[in-house]
Amino acid sequence: MRPKRIAAVARFEFLAVVKRWSYLIATFGLPLFLAAVSGTVLGVQTYFLTQRAAESSAFGLVDEASVVDRSVFEERDGEQVWGNQVSDVLLYEDQEAATRDLESGRLRALYVVDKDYLRSGEVRAIQSEKTPLLSMRGTNVEPLLRSLLRKSLLDGRLEEDVQERVISPALFVRARLGPDGVEVTDVDEALDLLMRTTIPLFLGVLLLTALLSASGYLVQTVATDKESKIVEVLLSSVTPEEILAGKLFGLGAAGLVQFAAWTSMVIFVALSASAALASVVTVPWLALAVSPLLFVLGYLFLGSLMLATAALGANAAESQKLTMGWAMLAILPLMVLVILLEDPNGILGQAMTWIPFTSPLTVIIRLSVEPSGVAWWEVSGAIVVLIISTWAAIRVGARLFRVGFLLTGSRPSLAELWRQSR
Amino acid sequence: MPFGPALVGVEARGASTLSSVGILEYRGVTKRFGQYTALADVSLEVVPGEVFGLLGPNGAGKTTLIRIGLDILRADEGEVSLFGAPPSQASLDRTAYLPEERGVYRRAKVRELLAYLGKLKGLGRAAAAKASSDWLERVGLSRVADHRVESLSKGMTQKVQIAACLMSDPELCVLDEPFSGLDPVNVALVTDLIQQRRANGLTTVLSTHMMHQVEALCDRVALVHQGHLVVYGQLDEIRRRYSPNEVIVWTAMDLSAFGVNATQHKTGGWRVELPASETAAGYLNELVRNGVSIDRYEPLVARMDDIFVSLVSGGR
User: Fold this and answer.
1) Do the beta carbons of residue B23 and residue B171 sit within 8 Å?
2) Which of B95, B105, B161 sits opposite A236 (nearest CB)?
3) CA–CA distance, B291 with A80 (Å, rounded to integer)
4) Which domain-ending residue is among A116, A138, A167?
5) How far apart, in Å, do the first and last CA atoms of chain A sit?
6) A12 touching chain B per CB within 8 A
7) Is A74 helix (H, G, I), strand (E, B) or coil?
8) Which residues, 6 or more positions from B119, have their beta carbon under 8 angstroms from its beta carbon?
């Protein structure tokens, strides 16, 4: 094979793709679009939350049972106020005055500790029509009132530290066992799960999308060559192997640029989220580091098979149908994503690491979710398997490509394909 | 005089006399597609510097023959040599091909497309760019150099394809139906380009159904029909061989007065059928000896159209 001819084909194919509007929009428009949508959603939410914060955040409390510990309240402008970070609770001795303040909108809700509270435990929550029944603040203030009532009931009846533990029996400190011992983190469980699954999912989907997108360009370009009848002109100048290699490299470069743009977006989002959420988001650097290599190998493997198969089709639609099977194999890890996220280093994850169709995506997901559970030899082994498979796929693919590329009429029989691919 | 399959045997002599100087040679080439035999034991050669006409009806096997010669297809039997050796990438770099079912990248710009195809032929970047500009100038398309191919007319696109084929000045160029879709001005342009190639000692294989172009351009021809080589040799010789033994005589005198059995020819002359033993030169001497005043005298030579139709329909 002649490198200069391959480079000429690669350069032409690369430029033909990257100049397309569809490519530019997909590569650079998609991240911008997602950023714009996320920014808009966050902006709108922030705006409304700010608006709500500016509204009254006071709640009234009428203690008919006289059980509430008054000592926590402080006097402010002639009123008894118990303040916290979220809202203020105003203690009323007179329910009528409290009702008036509720009607006027000064109070968001009024809580009345019933006279028979000690027997019934009943606390009435009264809201006016001006305040929504299940507002976020309402649900926030109620746990605080429960704590206040607990504290008031226990006051003087238990030792102070026991009393504190009754009120707050357990403060869970989340920790995860890392490879070097115990690593303590203060990550909220739900947030932790969200972040641990979102980033790998995002990265995996992007890798797969970039792989299928680049392979799609390959299918398209072969179909175009065949439909436009330029095949013979090309073949009188370069060999099928040189065309295959040129297309693989040129369109692979376009795919790599796309993947790099999208990956940058993931890193940006992860870093931004880390900053915003006080460093709780872990950027999967290891997964990101090996992802370009996995992309290139996965693309060359899948691409050469797709290119060869696409060449057997008479037109674009037929080529796409013929290559659908390879794409289905490649998206297999996404189909079992729940299992991979739940148990990334289980038998399924380990098995799919060694299958060339599924290994790029599986390794990325495993390294993103739980890098400590992936042995170095697994990653190296997966890469070696991919390299060997890619070499075999290119060899067989180039031969099938020659047979398919020249076909203008009927499709070759399986026996003919087998003969050519040996 | 009617043409018939009996004349095919004459051509076998031409097929069997391959020289060793052929730039493109086929020896006993057979190609089958499943049960269908596209080519059967075809042997011919194209010699350097000539314009070689490859003729035949649709589906005769011409394109298959070309593809085998350019290593796009492989023969099932027989041998092919290009520049004295089996086709290789080096020898293919010295050839160019304009297929009948030609295609272009319609979204590419004209100049970019030419430069790309030039680079595939081994030209460097600068050489390909220069050749693109030069050839666009030669075919009168400089003003659309930066247009997309899809914006060009069919004839203009055809000229782009011809320029792409010739831009590397290939030693051997195979042109399959280069005149289809061209207006008379552009037919003249392409004819001129082919003649320039011959003048420069470059070889051209011309596959066309336009027999008057064959007569105007080709030195030698081969006619393939149903996968078999039925006519092969020098164009003039073939035309003579298939010509009736007749002459046309332009004279102001009445030939019947001399006892000549003549009929009026559409050109205004007298058409005279000669006895089988008589030659055109001998008959001219005889007329002069008999005192016929002759303005113009021509042996009647068969047109390629007639030869083609006769051989092809005779085979059906």
Assistant:
1) yes
2) B95
3) 149
4) A167
5) 19
6) yes
7) strand
8) A4, A5, A8, B125, B128
- What's the CATH number where A145 sits? 3.40.190
Query: Of A35, A73, A32, whose CA–CA distance to A272 is shortest?
Result: A35
- CB atoms near residue B164 (< 10 Å): 26
The token pair at A415 is 């026996």
pLDDT digits (tens, 9 = 90+) for B45-93: 999 999 999 998 888 899 899 989 988 888 889 999 999 899 988 899 8
Q: What is the pLDDT of residues A305-324, one digit of tens each?
A: 888 888 777 777 777 788 88
Full DSSP string of B119-185: HHTT--HHHHHHHHHHHHHHTT-GGGTTSBGGGS-HHHHHHHHHHHHHTT--SEEEEESTTTT--HH
Residues of B with CB under 8 A from a CB of A: 67, 70, 72-73, 89, 92-93, 95-99, 101-108, 116-117, 119-122, 161, 164
Domain boundaries, chain B: 1-94+170-243+303-316, 102-168, 244-300
User: Counting one residue from A and one from B, how many pairs have CB atoms under 8 Å apart?
Assistant: 64
A228 with B97: Cβ contact below 8 A: no
Residue type, B296: R
Cβ(B243)–Cβ(B235) below 8 Å? no
ipTM here:
0.77
At B209 the three-state DSSP class reads coil
Query: Would strands B36-46 and B24-33 be described as parallel, antiparallel, or unpaired?
Result: antiparallel
Query: In B, which residues are within 8 Å of A2 by CB distance?
Result: 89
- Determine the topology of domain B1-94+170-243+303-316 in CATH: Rossmann fold (3.40.50)
- Paired tokens of B278: 């008589």
In the DSSP assignment, the letter for residue B82 is: E
Q: How distant is the alpha carbon of residue B251 from its chain centre?
A: 35
CATH architecture of the domain formed by B244-300: 2-Layer Sandwich (3.30)
The pair phi, psi for residue A183, each rounded to 5°, is: -115, 120
